[in-house]
Amino acid sequence: MNIEKTIAEFEQQLASGRGYSINTVKGYVSDIREFTEFLAKRDGSIESISLDDLRDWLFQLTQRGLAKSSMARKSASVRSFTAWLLATGKANTDPGLRLRTPKVGRSLPKVVSHESLATIFELLNAEAVAENPLGIRDKAIVELLYATGARVSEIASLSIDDIDSSRQLLRVMGKGSKQRMVPYGQPAADALEQWMSVGRPQLLNEKSRGDLFLNSKGSRVGVRQIYSVVADLLAVTPGGSAGPHSLRHSAATHLLDGGADLRAVQELLGHASLGTTQIYTHVSIERLKSGYQNAHPRA
Length: 299
Description:
globular, mainly alpha, DNA polymerase, domain 1, 2 domains
């Protein structure tokens, strides 16, 4: 069996048949390439993958000190692969059915404080002047990230048509190619208006399309660029080790702190399971307990 052809077919199935995101597909395919290379070294074949092959591969990965979350992802990748091999008649059995997934420990997400966010927006305001279109863009991006709780990749892929300014709604494409409408507030609306009327026109050129956020060359801004912008801003605040995804965590936690309904937050974030959103209730409780310990005279 041609390994490269088989992996290419599996990749196509992931992308079209299951509607996985581009990053998820890349991760799964990378895992399968790694596994098939391991298989080749022990003279194994795709047609006769055994449970021992899968276990030995995962055991080898544990010796490299991989995080449990990475191990869980790799387990999911090979289970999907062996199930697909059986379904397409490329194998007679599915050893992945008996493969146990490593349990992933759940840590509480890091949240940016209101004070740190105020510092961030002060820095952004100082840079968002008419002669600095990138500063105007960065302010609009960060305002939207915090206002909507959207993922960085979701903001990067926005087009102009995804903005409903009259109702202050944003249409985002989430995981599994699922669309959702999310609201944003007046600060984000003002930042968007400044970007559309002052910043964006300065970066437009003949190659520009309908992408909402542009880079200095007039093309769609990249996910890494946004990560870099947010990371640099967070670095100057207390607890600056928090990653750019913490703006999403902060939006969810601050909404729950303010009394928002858990299911409303679930819809805003685009979580398929309410259990995923419930982690933010634990963050709120921990913040409450911390505040109580620091403020109550008889704590």
